[in-house]
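Fig. S4 source data, part A: sequence.
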Amino acid sequence: MHHAGGSAVSFMPLREFLPDDWRLLALELPGRGAVAAAPVPATMADMVSLLLPALTEQLNGPYALFGHSMGALVAYELARELERLGMPPVLLGVSSSPAPHLRGVREGFGDLRTREKLAGFLRDLGGTPPEAFDEPELMEYLTHVLRVDLDFLLNYTANPSGVLEVPLAVYFGERDPLAGRDLVSPWAGYSSVHTGFRCWPGGHFYLFDQPEEFGARWTRDVRAVTRGAAQHQAARQGASWA
C-alpha cells in the first residue's frame, strides 16, 4: 500500500527486483489513478471494508503485506482483519511510519491547509520529481490528493487491542523526519510473534532511492518467514504421527 499523495505506480521501481515467480498485487487507494473518481473513505474502518473484498478474492496461498508511510497503517489494519478472518499474512512489512499510536507526532499535518504549504511539504520530504513543481496543473492534482490523504490520517486512531500474531518487519530511513527510530521502535508492541527492524540510508523515500537493495531485503525477509512457517507446519504434522 502506497504513501499519502502517492499511488500504486510508486512501487513500479521495485517490481523488477522481486522474484519472477511472485504474484504482485499493488492496491490503488481511492481518489487517484484509475479510481480517481472514488471518494477517500472518512475512517480507517471504512477503508478496510472497501479494500478487503478486492484483496481476499486474490488470496489463494501464502502471502505477505507491505505498506509504506500511510500505506503502512492501511496494511496493518488489513492484516488485523485478515487475521480475524483466519487468513493472516506470513509477514507484514511496514515502512516509514510511526507506530500507530504515535501517528501525528511531529507531523503537523493540521497546518498544511494551503497549496503553497502542501507543495513545500512535498519539496522538503523528497520523492517528488523537481520538474513537477513547475507544472501548475500537476501540482494542483498532487496537493489535492495529498490534502485528502492527510485529512484521512488525521481521523485515524489506533486500536489498543491490535496486537498481531503475525511476524512484523519494520523498515525506516535513518534521516526520515517523519518516522525516525524513536517513532518506529514502538511497533515492537504490535506483534506478539517477532518484530525485525531494518534501518536504511536515506530519508522518507529511502526505498525508491535504492530499489534493488530494498527488493533483495524484502525478498529475503519474506522467504525467511515462509520457510520458517513451512518447517513449523512440518514439525506439527510429524508430531501428530508420533
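Fig. S4 source data, part B ends here. The chain is about 40% helix and 10% strand.
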